[in-house]
Amino acid sequence: MKTSIATVTLSGELPEKLEAIAQAGFDGVEIFENDFLAFDGSPADVGKMARDLGLEITLFQPFRDFEGMPDALRSRTFDRAERKFDVMQELGTGMVLVCSNVSQAALGGIDRAAADFHELGERAAKRGLKVGYEALAWGRYVNDHRDAWEIVRRADHPNVGLILDSFHSLSRKIDINSIRSIPKEKIFIVQLADAPMIDMDLLYWSRHFRNMPGEGDLPVTAFAEAVASTGYDGYFSLEIFNDQFRGGSTRAIAADGHRSLIYLADQVRRSVKTPIGVPMPERATVKGVGFVEFATDEDEAGELIALLHTLGFRKAAVHRSKKVTLFEQGNIRILVNVDTAGFAGAAYAVHGTSAYALALVVDDAGEAYARALALDAEPFRQPVADDELEFPAIRAVGGGLIYLIDDKSPLGRFSEIDFEAVSATRSDAADAGLLHIDHIAQTVAYEEMLTWLLFYTSIFKTGKTPMVDIIDPSGVVRSQVIENEPGTLRITMNGAENRRTLAGHFIAEQFGSGIQHLAFSTDDIFATARQLRKRGFKPLHISPNYYDDVEARFGLQPDLTERLKAENILYDRDEHGEYLQLYSGTYGEGFFFEIVERRGYRGYGAANAIFRIAALKKLMRPEGIPKDAG
Ligand SMILES: O=C(O)c1ccc(O)c(O)c1
Ligand SMILES: [Mg+2]
């Protein structure tokens, strides 16, 4: 698949945009007229800049309010077009996008529009240029690609074709099967954009909320499949109007865009069986979390290890060559790394004590790694001793790592190969009944949420649930769940917009995104709570007012409410069952542990988050969260 992106998608000046586009691996670029007009160089300079970076200029756009003008305005409209053609020839691009007329002056009529396009085609042909017609979802007379296609068909000119834009068609819920019968040579270019499902004015939605394919809720893949079924083998070009992207990191957004197209091509290749995109292994099935690794130092390790002990973990093994200790309970493994050398040391130096790495157990680590790299993930390597395992690894949230391990290779036996077991002591006899990692909560800056959503969902067989707003006493935190069907990988991603929220404070003080809490599962939270108490665990104190409310809200038996209150356990329920949650206090700059018992429940206790956040913030005062820092 040939990939392209419109300059309007990115922030910055034109040269910066072009560089980021080339760097991200695109083949082509659409020059959006305003980007060109705001730039000081000549069209020839822009053309040279693009070509020097190896980019083809796929399109110059948009040319507005062209077709169906009354006679008094018609010749001036053609003059305007000739001026655009001059610029295009200097730029060195062969195609212009004409979007459907929105002018009050425009006259309707398919034949009138077709005649205008025929003439424009004649004029374009003289210069060796092509004209593509796109139906804007809010066009005055033409707002449906089926009508635009009919106009193009009647214009009957080899230099006039159709431009499809997934947003315009999907936002109006136009049947995409209508694309399948369009001859591929009449589809000049295909623009792609997704968007979150929001019920609002089409123009406003389009100009502010588009996002990359796979980041939103529109069936962009099905749209691309319909296009591919025609045999179309031209450019797929991203055209994303998004306020956040325009203010975001030029390089990061360009990289997300490239990843979104590779992912899309992979899905289309599998379903339509066309040779689109690069063959790669399927999305990796995650069977579980192999371990979570903390980076810390000798001084701070003590407090973390003490906390792990109160949670019922036992020291199970030590690394043969590195200063890494393995703690275990049920199927949960936690590594505590105090090595000053290597990546863990660097992570500690930047972030302080933090859970910087995650191992995911997949069917085939080599295949998962190959897929990750095909999707532009950044590989990670560091030297390992001869007799030690080298985990395939990629960079992940907050500059941390994801290690890929599997059971079919020696990687699955890392705890025997790289580690030496230590014998159990008497105090290890009874654990706290913790079984699995239920979920991993990562806190990221709000503008990074889509990046990581696309990262996880494109590489691993996971899906997302709708974003929810969590009310922090100092602002809103957006929360997005990424999970797989069997629940063996559950990630909650919290996006913070300001640093006064608990999540925002965590990012500011940790110097970046990262894992903010780990939730462990138990199948008897009351028994676990009892064990934890014996071990000296201090649960997060929940206000008694909460229990009055929860009893009334769910109609709980008073004795259950009393038991919940006695153990500081939070309660929630959905149509599938009940959820019980118990929290630790905060550790460091806002890290904490959670213990959950799921009785069929599928969610994450979003309704309880406000109480949990308030309680955690109370713990962190007075020196914790600045009351009114900006
Ligand atoms: O919002 C617009 O005006 C606009 C312009 C050009 C396009 O290709 C498009 O999809 C929208
Ligand atoms: Mg468009």
TrEMBL record:
Give the GO molecular function terms: 3-dehydroshikimate dehydratase activity; dioxygenase activity; metal ion binding
For the protein in the UniProt heading, the enzyme class is: lyase
What are the names of the required cofactors? Answer: a divalent metal cation
Q: Which CDD domains match?
A: HPPD_N_like (cd08342)
Where on this chain does a divalent metal cation bind?
A: E134, D165, Q191, E239
Q: Pathway, per UniProt?
A: Aromatic compound metabolism; 3,4-dihydroxybenzoate biosynthesis
Q: Which residues form the VOC domain?
A: 288-407, 436-585
The protein's matches in InterPro entries, at most eight in alphabetical order, are given as:
4OHPhenylPyrv_dOase_N, DSD, Glyas_Bleomycin-R_OHBP_Dase, Glyas_Fos-R_dOase_dom, IolE/XylAMocC-like, VOC_core, Xyl_isomerase-like_sf, Xyl_isomerase-like_TIM-brl
UniProt entry tagged with the keyword Lyase? yes
Q: What reaction does this enzyme carry out catalytically? A: 3-dehydroshikimate = 3,4-dihydroxybenzoate + H2O
- Keywords assigned by UniProt, alphabetized: Lyase, Metal-binding, Plasmid
One GO BP annotation of this record: 3,4-dihydroxybenzoate biosynthetic process
- Gene3D superfamilies per the record? 2,3-Dihydroxybiphenyl 1,2-Dioxygenase, domain 1, Divalent-metal-dependent TIM barrel enzymes
Query: What Enzyme Commission number does this protein have?
Result: 4.2.1.118
Q: Which residues bind Mg(2+)?
A: H439, H517, E594
The record's HAMAP family line, in alphabetical order, gives: DSD (MF_02238)
Q: What does this protein do?
A: Catalyzes the conversion of 3-dehydroshikimate to protocatechuate (3,4-dihydroxybenzoate), a common intermediate of quinate and shikimate degradation pathways.
Q: What is this protein called?
A: 3-dehydroshikimate dehydratase
